[in-house]
């Protein structure tokens, strides 16, 4: 028979309630680590699944410049009227039939990326830390591929209340609502210039009545120029 030794324990030998149930302390960085991990994972997914393949396809087509409009999942004003929550346009690049991107120079090589999922909401992508990390991850990836990435620290004077900073590619042309690419130095072979900013962008969309209307909403604009 097993001898019961519990009666030999004094009250001083028993663990306290606070010792029995422990939680990460406020100084452990538990919540900030979760935040940083989620941010890095979502941005890496966008780069791997959308941005990098698009850039490689663009250069294989002989084009040296590309501008991507990344539309967060809950910016309903920039979703096609026929979407109705369908997943058929998830990751759709280029405007759908009946859509036209307006407000950018006609010479721009423009493409759309429509994101899906609650994790890709505007509330996530409008955070300045997210915009900053997106460009940093993009620049890091391009460096790893052997490119010389040129920095450009010019701020967008019309960044608005989000606090997002433009990296020099984007400048509001007053008094119109168009965005233009400032004149920059030509790039040498192997050089790349990048820019990432959260902006108001506009689409001319054909609605269910067959009429065209212009809709505006927030999108993450990613621009890449390749020298060669």
UniProtKB/TrEMBL annotation:
This is Uncharacterized protein. It comes from the Eukaryota. Residues 74-96, 152-186 are annotated as: Disordered. Residues 74-93 have a biased composition (Polar residues).
């Amino acid at each position: 028979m097993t001898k019961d030794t519990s009666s030999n324990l004094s009250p001083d030998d028993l663990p306290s309630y606070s010792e029995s149930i422990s939680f990460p302390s406020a100084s452990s960085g538990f919540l900030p680590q979760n935040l940083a991990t989620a941010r890095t994972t979502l941005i890496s997914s966008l780069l791997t699944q959308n941005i990098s393949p698009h850039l490689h396809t663009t250069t294989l087509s002989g084009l040296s410049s590309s501008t991507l409009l990344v539309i967060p999942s809950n910016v309903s004003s920039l979703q096609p009227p026929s979407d109705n929550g369908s997943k058929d346009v998830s990751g759709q690049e280029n405007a759908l039939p009946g859509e036209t991107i307006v407000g950018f120079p006609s010479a721009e090589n423009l493409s759309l990326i429509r994101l899906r999922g609650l994790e890709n909401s505007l509330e996530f992508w409008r955070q300045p830390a997210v915009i900053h990390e997106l460009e940093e991850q993009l620049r890091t990836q391009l460096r790893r591929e052997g490119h010389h990435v040129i920095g450009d620290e010019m701020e967008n004077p019309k960044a608005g209340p989000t606090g997002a900073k433009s990296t020099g590619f984007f400048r509001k042309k007053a008094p119109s609502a168009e965005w233009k690419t400032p004149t920059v130095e030509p790039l040498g072979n192997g050089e790349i210039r990048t820019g990432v900013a959260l902006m108001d962008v506009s689409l001319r969309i054909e609605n269910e009545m067959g009429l065209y209307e212009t809709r505006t909403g927030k999108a993450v604009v990613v621009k890449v120029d390749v020298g060669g």
